[in-house]
């Protein structure tokens, strides 16, 4: 008796697929509150703009995002060239970049013609966000055009005007000290510091820092006026050369006090200042690097100084600097302090 058997061919078997109506969109099962947590951690305004056109639900939720980060990716100045200390360059950087993402925040049915796209101010781009609490704006580079081997970092706090500023600088960063440099590093400022342009260069760095900081401050005025829910505002750059911070108290002060603008420039006026300077010809750090001509400058408005500011340490917020420069600042304040004064400008 002959029998036959059949073996299933798995290569040709067709498995049934669920009907389209049974397909689950996992985003649909997430509550709005959880989606907002995701969007708030996303932060980047370009990404948020793209999410805004995904669905009607996303389009409704995106304007409720409270934490936003604007990363600038294009530099444009008045004459199509970059000028390090020109305050308008910062303004045009933001206007040019933000114009490239503003169309994402239009209704989903908008017909976007990128070739005809106009540039918009930061306020225009952020206008659809009604409850912004934390805003970070990041420039592609610092305004100060310095040589590659020069270190220059600054941190500034503003209210209606400058509250405090710190600058950490070095003429160069190297990996080791020569023997004669080690023997000559007794901690004192050499006479050549005053005669070879060392002091003059640090004054230039300080003034340039203050101009860059006040230009950023001027730029933020309109944003602060429009977004009264803001609690934290940071204007930084990719290299973190400069960081301007404002908290809720400082922004409230700016809203109620008139902004003093420097004549013929788009920056905030700088008041009369008192400064403390610390200097080391050579400063060896724990990571093996050496700062040559290491300088720390702490700046305060003269009229706001009080008795508690007499202590040199109270002038410096070490946590504002990342390592190893935080340690460098701590090492510098142990050295002799030099006082400077500067008129308003």
From TrEMBL:
Biased composition regions of type Polar residues, renumbered to the chain: 1-15
Name assigned to this protein: F-box protein
Region entry Disordered, spans: 1-22
PANTHER family, per database record: OS05G0510400 PROTEIN-RELATED (PTHR31215)
Origin species: Tanacetum coccineum
Top-level taxonomic group: Eukaryota
Database matches in Pfam families: F-box-like
Domain F-box: from-to ranges: 28-62
């Amino acid at each position: 008796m002959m029998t036959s058997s059949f073996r299933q061919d798995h290569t040709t078997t067709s498995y049934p697929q669920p009907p389209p109506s049974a397909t689950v969109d996992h985003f649909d099962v997430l509550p709005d509150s959880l989606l907002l947590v995701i969007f708030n951690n996303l932060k980047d305004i370009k990404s948020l703009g793209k999410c805004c056109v995904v669905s009607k639900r996303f389009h409704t939720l995106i304007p409720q995002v409270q934490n936003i980060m604007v990363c600038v990716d294009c530099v444009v100045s008045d004459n199509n060239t970059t000028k390090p200390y020109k305050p308008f360059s910062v303004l045009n950087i933001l206007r040019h970049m933000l114009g490239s993402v503003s169309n994402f925040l239009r209704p989903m049915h908008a017909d976007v013609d990128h070739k005809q796209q106009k540039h918009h101010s930061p306020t225009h781009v952020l206008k659809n966000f009604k409850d912004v609490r934390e805003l970070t704006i990041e420039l592609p580079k610092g305004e100060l055009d310095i040589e590659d081997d020069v270190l220059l970092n600054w941190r500034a706090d503003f209210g209606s005007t400058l509250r405090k500023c710190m600058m950490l600088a070095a003429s160069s960063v190297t990996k080791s000290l020569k023997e004669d440099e080690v023997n000559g590093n007794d901690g004192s400022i050499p006479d050549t510091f005053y005669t070879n342009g060392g002091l003059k260069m640090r004054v230039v760095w300080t003034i340039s820092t203050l101009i860059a900081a006040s230009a950023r401050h001027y730029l933020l005025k309109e944003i602060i006026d429009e977004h009264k829910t803001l609690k934290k505002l940071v204007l930084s750059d990719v290299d973190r050369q400069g960081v301007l911070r404002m908290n809720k108290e400082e922004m409230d002060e700016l809203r109620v006090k008139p902004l003093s603008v420097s004549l013929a420039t788009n920056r905030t006026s700088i008041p009369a200042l008192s400064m403390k300077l610390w200097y080391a010809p050579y400063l060896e750090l724990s990571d093996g690097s050496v700062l040559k001509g290491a300088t720390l400058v702490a700046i305060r408005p003269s009229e706001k100084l009080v008795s508690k500011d007499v202590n040199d340490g109270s002038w410096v917020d070490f946590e504002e600097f990342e390592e190893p420069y935080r340690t460098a600042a701590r090492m510098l304040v142990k050295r002799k302090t030099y006082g400077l004064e500067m008129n308003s400008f």
